[in-house]
Amino acid sequence: MVTVLDTVGGVKPRHPEKAHRPDQPIARKPDWIRVKAPGSPVYNETREIVRENKLVTVCEEAGCPNIGECWSKKHATFMIMGDTCTRACAFCNVKTGVPGALDAGEPDSVAIAVEKLGLSHVVITSVDRDDLDDGGADHFARVIGAIRARSPRTTIEILTPDFLRKPGALETVVAAKPDVFNHNLETVPSKYLKVRPGARYFHSIRLLQKVKELDPGMFTKSGIMVGLGEERNEVLQLMDDLRSAEVDFLTIGQYLQPTRKHHEVISFVTPEAFKAYETIAYAKGFLMVSSSPLTRSSHHAGEDFARLRAARAAAGR
Asked: Residues annotated in the binding site, as ranges?
């Protein structure tokens, strides 16, 4: 395992802000969180396309456990605006620090990769770019436009930062007309100070609500991790908060600790408890719910989007 203190050839550690934190024990994963190691021919083909176009994927940067499955289906989630985040969330394995300048050629590079992979649905996410006046909103819009130009039939799902204190940023992204606007709450409000200190829970709720005000037809989505010490009643209240913002799709997955310097896993939530959360969330009015130990925001995103559209049609919304 590579820790936040490891360096290779003089390269700076991924998480300098965590270097002096005490080590946290890494709990043994239960049997229901076992995944196969990647390495199929299609997986290798996907990796080559990502490398050829010099792209960054959240699949790799965040250490997603589903990378083998997704890349073997040519499903990759592209992470734009570099590999370095200006935030320092306690759960996240993406590198933190001072980011470089935006790559003006990145929108075309992403669009070329989407075309080569033949994606019918693509997920685009990003690092937080608090250093930019618009938080990277215009870059998001350019990426969406480039994909539309090359692959007009591809549906586009974006997973955005919170654009905290970035006036006009949300409007720019919504005007680019992604098919799904996703912004993750990540955890319940009582855990924000420790888990997501750079963010504000009710700002994120308001962001999702405003998407619907700007474009009532746009699908909205949000996700959380469990196993961080949250209480069940807090998760249920979070569901109500999201429904008050008319969010359509909720994802719930198990938090997995990237290194000993990250937030520890407080509990491994059982598959039965995930199923109970799913049942309750549907009863509260979500059109789509994905709740399982290995659920991640972009896992099965294409199939879920088809189901989401069908659920809206059936509900007459």
From this structure: 59, 64, 70, 85, 89, 92, 298
Domain containing residue 79: CATH number: 3.20.20.70
Q: Specify if 81 maps to a domain.
A: yes
Q: 17 in a domain, yes or no?
A: no
- Per-residue pLDDT reduced to its tens digit, 109-167: 999 999 998 999 999 999 999 999 999 999 999 999 999 999 999 999 999 999 999 99
Residues in binding site for [4Fe-4S] cluster? 59, 64, 70, 85, 89, 92, 298
pLDDT digits (tens, 9 = 90+) for 266-316: 999 999 999 999 999 999 999 999 999 998 887 788 899 999 999 999 998
In a domain, 11, yes or no: no
* Domain of 288, in residue numbers: 37-315
Helix H, strand E, coil C: the string for the chain is CCCCCCCCCCCCCCCHHHCCCCCCCCCCCCHHHCCCCCCCHHHHHHHHHHHHCCCCEHHHHCCCCCHHHHHCCCCCEEEECCCEECCCCCCCCCEECCCCCCCCCHHHHHHHHHHHHCCCEEEEEECCCCCCCCCCHHHHHHHHHHHHHHCCCCEEEEECCCCCCCCCHHHHHHHCCCCEEECCCECCHHHHHHHCCCCCHHHHHHHHHHHHHHCCCCEEEEEEEECCCCCHHHHHHHHHHHHHCCCCEEEEEECCCCCCCCCCCCCCCCHHHHHHHHHHHHHCCCCEEEECCCCCCCCCHHHHHHHHHHHHHHHCC
